[in-house]
Amino acid sequence: MTIIETIQDVIPVLSTRALATIRHIKFGSSIGTAVIFSSVGGQCWATAQHVIAGAKIGDQFQVFDDGLWKPFQFRDLVHSPVPVDCSVFTIGSSYNLKTFSLEKLPNLFFGQTLVAYGFPYGHIQSTGITPFPNPFCKRGTFSGVIDTGSAGTIVMMDAIINQGFSGGPVVCWDYQEKEIRIAGIVSRAHPELGTFGSILDVSDPQNPQQIPDIVAQIYSGYTILIPPSVARDLSLQLTKFPQPITLASGSGPQDSAS
Question: Does pTM surpass 0.90?
Answer without folding.
Answer: no
